[in-house]
Structure formats: C-alpha cells, structure tokens
Amino acid sequence: MSRFAVRRLSCSLLCLSLLSSYCLAKDFGKVTGQKVAEGVYLFTTTPYGDAGLSGNSVAILSDEGVLVFDSNGTPETAATVLAEIRKLTDKPVRYLVNSHWHWDHWGGNQVYLAAFPGLQIITHEKTRELMLTVEPRWNEKGLKEDLPQFLDSFEKQIAAAKARNVPAERIKAAEERLAADRNFMAQKQSLHKTYPNVTFSGSMTLILGGREIQLLHAQAITTGDTYLYLPKEKVLVTGDILLSPYPFAIGGTYPAEWLGTLEKFAERAPAVILPGHGDAETNTDFLRGNIALFQDAIMQVKSAKAKGMTVDQTAEALAKQNSELAAKIGIKDAETADAFKAYFLDVFVKRAYRELESPLSDLPDGLPKQN
Ligand SMILES: [Zn+2]
Hints:
CATH superfamily of the domain at 9-134 and 193-200: Ribonuclease Z/Hydroxyacylglutathione hydrolase-like
Strand content: 15-25%
Bound molecules: zinc ion
Shape: globular
CATH topology of the domain at 9-134 and 193-200: Metallo-beta-lactamase, Chain A
Largest sheet: 7 strands, mixed
Strand order of the largest sheet: 1-2-3-4-5-6-7
Number of strands: 12
Structural class: alpha/beta
Distance between the termini: 25 Å
Radius of gyration: 21 Å
C-alpha cells in the first residue's frame, strides 16, 4: 500500500467512546517472523497506528549470504527484522530488493546499508526513477501537514475526554495509540532516503549459495513492479501485486497488465505465495479470487464503455456491486468492503476505463502538482 495518509480518523474517535478490540490493540508495529520454506522467512508487521501499514519483508538465507525482499515502512521496523535475521544466520545481507516505490516497502533501506556497506540495493529502473521524482510529491503533504494536524487534534480529543470523565481504560488505550502515532511520525521525519544502487529492466537472476533467485518485472500496481520467484522451491514473492485483505489500486496501476501478471502467477502453480501485506498462502484460492475479481471488473468496464457510458457512470454502476465484487476475495464485513471500494474499486475502474482510450500515465491519479 502506498499513500502516507491518516486513514483511521474515525477509529480514534471511536476509541474514546467504544471498547473496540481494534482500537485497543496495543502491539503497534509489532514484527512476527515465520519460516515458510527451507531458508525462507516472512516477516509481517502489525499497523503502526492511524497512519499506515508496513509492507512485508522476506529473507532468503544461504551459505553465501542473505537476500532481503523489501525493507518495511520505517527504519525501526527494518532494524527489528534485521535483528531477527541475525538470530537465524551469521552471514551478511548481500542483496536488498525493493518491490516498488511506495514508502512502506523501502523505508528501512538505510538500516541495511549501514550494517552492510557493500550491499546491493536492487530495483527496477522505473521504480528508482519514481522514488526520486514522484514519491516526495506524493507523501510530502501527509508528513508535513496532515499527520501533525491529526496528532494535535487527537491530543485535544483525549484532553476533552479526560475532562468528561471518560473511563480510564479508554483514555489509556487512546494514549497508547497517540504514542504509537507520534513514534511513527518521528520515524518518518528521521528517515534518510536510501535509494537502490543497482537497477534492471527486464529480469535478473541471482545465484546465491547455489539457490536460483529470479527477479522479474511487471507493470501492475506501478509501472516498475519487481516480484521474486524461486523456481526450485516454487516460492513466489509478489510485493503489492497481490496482497490481503484487498488489492490497493492507488498509486499508478495498469489494470489489464495487472490482471495478466496475476494470471502468470497462477500458471506457475506456486507452492507458497508471500504477498506484499498479509500472511503466507499455501493454496492459490486467494490468487484465483483476485483473478476472478479483476476479470469481472474489467469485463464490466469494457461492456459499459461499449454501451456509451461515461467513466463516472461506469464507476457508479460498479460501485453498486461493491459487496458482490468484494465477496470474490472473501470480504464479508461492511467496514472492509468500504475500504475495498475506496482503495481499490473506485480507482481501478477509472483507470481500466481510461486504459481503453489511451495509454495510461505512470503517475498516480491525484498526484499533487510540483511546487
Ligand atoms: Zn504496500
């Protein structure tokens, strides 16, 4: 996922009035590691608080060193993951791969480069360019204005709740959340952007400790996506081309090629799928659900356009089927279905429509103008 934004304003308000289990979750930014194949480990991270999610990180170990795929959203998370890797091996990290330019997948690059000065940080050539040119424009307002304003307002809400004698346990939960948000902002403000020093265009194969590691390019959620495949072990590391609980289309997607990439994933019949967010999948049901969703949405967009409907009419028509479309990937509750609409369906449908008219821009919809 990409946009650095305050997403859960309503949840913070909710914390002061309801004992919601989500709002009371204390382990913000907590890392969990899991062995998913011989020498392959997946690290997932709980949400940072109100302002974002870290992408997953994957470590591939060998006798000759380690490859890490994606470095999380903050240096702190990357340092935690690296500490876990050091418990598993005394070999150095030799390669760090960044799947795409969204901040939650390369925010910890500096940690790895500081620990391993000869490190090769690899990404697709277009991703490096987008990291340098688009990412600052995309996230600057969120970091400099939206998040500080949100924190001020949250603090005031807590003070007002105390004055109203809201029960202490609710106040405590809100304060823990505020502390997590403040820590996240401090992490983001102290980050030194560390860019990839190796790029590729089509594909790249690394042989590490006798293990073949393929890095492959796709134009799916961005123009420069990198995914990783271990052909012998049939482990597929997708970045955000596939993620749970729902796909994230904000950030410059290419609907038709995205679907084509998912279909290629299925053709490989992977034994293990490691998505950009969420848990490892050992069956392909989730992948197939995503393919069915994309096929249906794209087919409906084509048919609506053929009937002469405008892009807005098409988006409106698809939005009416939001719960049915969300159900194709197993979403049943209304809150997640709303997020599915905001972060996937609305954007995806519009880009799928425009893609039928002319080539899409690599830039995300809604990118702020350059100062
Ligand atoms: Zn992400």
